Amino acid sequence: MPAIFSHRFDTPLYTGNVYVQTGLFINGAFVDASSRTTIDIFNPSTGKVITQVSEGTAKDIDLAVAAARNAFNTTWGLKVPGSARGQLLYKLATLMEESLEELAAIEALDNGTAFGVVKGWVVPFSIGLIKYYAGWADKISGQVIETDEGRLTYTRHEPIGVVGQIIPWNAPLLMFAMKIAPALAAGNTVVIKPSELTPLSALRVCSLVQEAGFPPGVLNVVVGYGNTVGSALSSHMNIDKISFTGSTLTGRKIMEAASKSNLKNITLELGGKSPNIIFNDADVDQAVSWACHGIFFAQGQICFAGSRIYVQSGIYDEFLAKFTIRSKAHKIGDPFGVDSYQGPQISSTQTERVMGYIKSGVDQGAKVHLGGQRHGDQDGNFITPTIFTDTRPDMKIVQEEIFGPVSVVIKFEDQEDVIQQANDTIYGLAAAVFTQDISQAFEVGHALKAGTVWVNCYNEVHAAVPFGGFKQSGIGREYGSYALEHYVNVKAMHINIKHKMG
Q1: CA separation for the pair 110, 52 (Å, rounded)
Q2: Catalytic: 400?
Q3: pTM greater than 0.85 (yes/no)
Q4: Cβ atoms < 10 Å from Cβ of 67
Q5: Please, what's the largest Cα pairwise distance for the chain?
Q6: How far apart are alpha carbons 165 and 486 in whole angstroms?
Q7: Catalytic residue among 206, 303, 401, 478
Q8: 123-136 vs 172-185: helix crossing angle, rounded to 10
Q9: Cβ 389 vs Cβ 366: under 8 Å
Q10: Which residue among the candidates 196, 269, 401, 478 is catalytic per the annotation?
């Protein structure tokens, strides 16, 4: 039997015990991995091992897919009305609400994001996503289409079948909710792979899935490495769809594996290098506040981080001075520390990757205006908020996704120039415009090649609003009714009422 991870929190922000099953969750039960091997889970704040979880393999994916297929054919899918699916999803959300602080503590420990941020936004938003799709479960419908009086023609939106999902480590609980909720609401069954770095919140929710009363096999969780479990999901001949959030490089590999196997349906939400454009007429103090939130939230480990900050020349010096003061004021430290805003990067590997980008910026001639260093004990993965100036468009720190608390502040002169610079990227996930001129906001927003454009704000997401990218930032959309479109097959029914030719 799998072990149970227990941990006692005794911090100024949270006190209590948490318990997490560490096995794979297959067919409604926690089980040991076929290999009987485990994966060490590290605390990113200290570099020390928290616990071990079962390491899934391709064999475990086969077992999970078989369970999911059986559930789809017998107790879920078209066998269950949408209202019943919605009730179970809403019950899960209610149980998560009852465990909100516990889930937040697990997430902060495992992922390193500040407890206050996780408790105040990440967990509530995750719960809200599940509630939102619970409401959609009995409202997925087709159309009756007029052709002629002798025929009845209509469409059915049917669940695709067994869905494989792969999520990253940067916001594990939110990503888990974002993936499973629309898939289950539409009637699919799921085999999901959390990141091997941050699986604990997903495993804790599996216990709540049991408590909520979901039929066995509807949701299966297999923790493992990308080159084993991720690869097995992407190439599996009995998985009908794959949905992935992560890097563009990995997204390409998943797309290739999906095409070479059974040409499975894919949704990819990938990387970004998002521009944040601030015009002379912007409210500078508000722009500074949102810019800090845009790049330093969650240690800069978000795909739509506003890492390229373009500031018009008339306010450039004022903005840079205030942005510097605000960035310096961020408290870096233990996620459970009072007033902590910026926690650690997820791992030593990611920390070294970010520091490598900082070095490349220096080597290519950019100026480190602020930061550029590790913070505190070298066993922790903390990096100071970093601001580069005096950059060139071809620099790696301007073109490539860093996934850390590193920004470039770039002066521009006119609208046409900044639109060209903003669109000079392989990505197209998000962008922002700060201006008091509504005409300018529309004109620039429409010209930007990005799936989301914020005006006078940043990092604003809503369960009902679609999110996804242009260009190499992905295929398809998360959130809203748009996400549901990726979890159904549309069937056209033609009924000849008069039973005659012609």
Answers
A1: 12
A2: no
A3: yes
A4: 22
A5: 81
A6: 13
A7: 303
A8: 0
A9: yes
A10: 269
